[in-house]
Amino acid sequence: MDPKLQKTSVLMLPWLAHGHISPFFELAKKLSQYNFHIYFCSTPINLKPLRENPFPNKNKIQLIDLHLPSSLLPPHYHTTKDLPPHLMSTLKTAFDESKPVFCDVLKTLEPDILIYDFLQPWAPAAAIELNIRAVMFLLTGGATTSFLMHHCINPGVEFPFPEFRFPEAEVMKFINFMFDTANGITNGDRYFKCLERSNNMVLVKTSREIEAKYIDYCSVLTKKEMVSVGALVQEPEVKVDDTRTLNWLKKKEPSSVVFVSFGSEYFLSKKEMNEIALGLELSEVSFIWVVRFHGEGRDCRSIEEALPDGFLKRIGERGLIVENWAPQLKILEHPSIGGFVSHCGWSSTMEGMMFGVPIIAMPMQLDQPLNARLVVKFGVGIEVPRESGRIFQKEEMARVIKQVVMEEEGKEVRKKAKEVSQKMREIGDAEMDMIVEKLLLLLI
């Protein structure tokens, strides 16, 4: 059976964060190439940028509004973007209370399959009641997923992969996320109920090229088949607003610039920002740095106030500071880029690997320390060392940047990054063909 000849409808429901919506939407675009009709469901504020920008196979991807109760949060807060941290629990509660609206969507659209995220166990429950197949889609990598599962299912038992053994305090810092509560339900309860309700398999945003043994171990732990969907890195697109950054890059030598970004949901303290600025200055390497401020309560009115005195004047044309957003994918694929100073969020890590850019790992929170270990294990980057509980030090940051971009001892890292990129690209189409076949088998 040729999967491209079979018509199937899929409803996709990601959690309300850009870091979740983006990979879900990339999967939607790929499935649409196989004659799937996709209903992509989220809140109007999250769907707004998708509606405003063209995307391929638009006739096969239908955007569906999910209206959360505005009595709990105003509509502009129906997303994690610029959401004050103290309202995160309220957003999860509002998401839970959208269940009746979501059930109406299910009954109206009658999709063949629901693909859902890790925080909404009510979604697969509603699908199962209507005899709709439900499949969970995890956006953490295989190593992180198996680490989390292991320590929840086998507390106190040593993790079987020594490269990911952390001091107990560090393990608990990560696992404690599972005990956060919203609407009287812990993240752990949400996670495992979502897992339990997934039909036979779970999709995982990773590539078997780099994480096969962790995916397989996770399958053993959960008694569900873990199926890799690939990196799901979107094709870079040039927009009018990107010209300043790309024109600046054109003037630089090949592999001479580092791109510096700590993701869309981590905001540096003024002390962290100061140390990172001085580290970039000490490195003597050209850089593009995306500086983000939280939408509310920012303690600086301007970039100049946030950075060390005289910093912008001292770096001159060697550095480019961009506030809030930059065309990350266009930057990473540019031949002038020689390193990626990253927090090692999973999507950013996969993007760095896919484009063959060596990673200078500076993990901040959540799964990022595990992702940084993976970067080091596969030889595609080097982690900036720091003492437990301390912020990164400018001298160490500068040393690692120089090592990765300029020095002979970083040559092997640069070479390995290119090799892994090539292998991930080669396996990508095969992984998607396999996913399509497995989704269609659910309907037999």
TrEMBL record:
Q: What is its EC number?
A: 2.4.1.-
Which GO MF terms are attached to this record? UDP-glycosyltransferase activity
SUPFAM superfamilies recorded: UDP-Glycosyltransferase/glycogen phosphorylase
Domain of life where this protein originates: Eukaryota
What InterPro entries does the annotation carry?
A: Glyco_transf_N, UDP_glucos_trans, UDP_glycos_trans_CS
Domain (Glycosyltransferase N-terminal) spans 8-220
Keyword set, alphabetical order? Glycosyltransferase, Transferase
Q: What class of enzyme is it?
A: transferase
Tell me the Gene Ontology biological-process terms attached to this UniProt entry: carbohydrate derivative biosynthetic process
| PROSITE patterns attached to this UniProt entry | UDPGT (PS00375)
Tell me which CDD domains the record gives. Answer: GT1_Gtf-like (cd03784)
Q: One of this protein's Pfam families, by short name?
A: Glyco_transf_N
**Homology family:** Belongs to the UDP-glycosyltransferase family.
Entry-linked PANTHER family: GLYCOSYLTRANSFERASE, UDP-GLYCOSYLTRANSFERASE SUPERFAMILY PROTEIN
Protein name (record) = Glycosyltransferase
Species of the source: Tripterygium wilfordii (Thunder God vine)
